[in-house]
Amino acid sequence: MSINSTTPTIILSLDRIYRLVNKFPAFTRPTIHVTGTNGKGSVTALVASILHETGLRVGRFNSPHLLHVRDSISIGLKPVSESRYFETRSIVDRANDEGDKGEEAPRASLFEALTVTAMRIFEEEAVDIAVIEVGMGGRLDSTNVLPEKGVVKVSAMTAVDVDHVQWLGSTPPEIAREKAGIAR
């Protein structure tokens, strides 16, 4: 929401993030994608911890961040370094500023750019598996830009309840349909 308005400023669409993500090499890391109303952060933390203990190099993307935006992106259960985050984020931001074929294109949102930053870091660091938490909803959430084939190994949904009704629907079944949109 904007500060001086009651009109939502969130635009649920994958157009901007697809425009941005397609400026980079394909994301290929095996992924566990988690949505839900409550508990998805706990689930992603638990899954990442279990996979880490088996010896896998695990990347985790969660939202919102705790102290700094970069702590939403971790590798091996530790937030990525400031230098790693800002190096990749600056590349993503430059790509975001470029229009397509000389045309000015709508910029990806901050969360969309953060999602692409996480994906680029996981790809460049060659994590064995990525555990990615949906931001809001599922079907039109920026994390749903993950490739359709071969990448998402598990799609999971935690408990669903009424949340974000102005974007997802007003009943649990309507909201569950939106969240189930991540299923592969």
List the helices and strands and how they pair.
Layout: H1 15-21, E1 31-35, H2 40-53, E2 58-61, E3 73-75, E4 78-79, H3 82-97, H4 110-124, E5 129-133, E6 152-157, H5 165-168, H6 172-179
Parallel strand pairs: 1-5, 1-6, 2-5
Antiparallel strand pairs: 2-3, 3-4
Helix pairs in contact: 3-4
Describe the structure.
With 184 residues, the protein is α/β, with parallel strands linked by helices. The protein is built from 6 helices and 6 strands; from the N terminus they run αβαβββααββαα. It has a 6-stranded mixed β-sheet with strand order 4-3-2-5-1-6, with helices on both faces. Strand 3 and strand 4 (78-79) form a beta hairpin. Helix 3 crosses helix 4. The longest helix is centred in the middle third of the chain and has 16 residues, at 82-97. Mean pLDDT is 89; it is low at 1-8.
Biggest sheet character: 6 strands, mixed
Low-pLDDT runs of 5+ residues are 1-8
- Described by its quaternary structure, the protein is single chain
Q: How many distinct beta strands?
A: 6
Name the helix and strand elements from N-terminus to C-terminus, one letter apiece.
Answer: HEHEEEHHEEHH
Distance between the termini: 31 Å
* β-sheet strand percentage: 5-15%
Side-by-side strand order of the widest sheet: 4-3-2-5-1-6
Q: Helical stretch count?
A: 6
Let me know the average pLDDT.
89
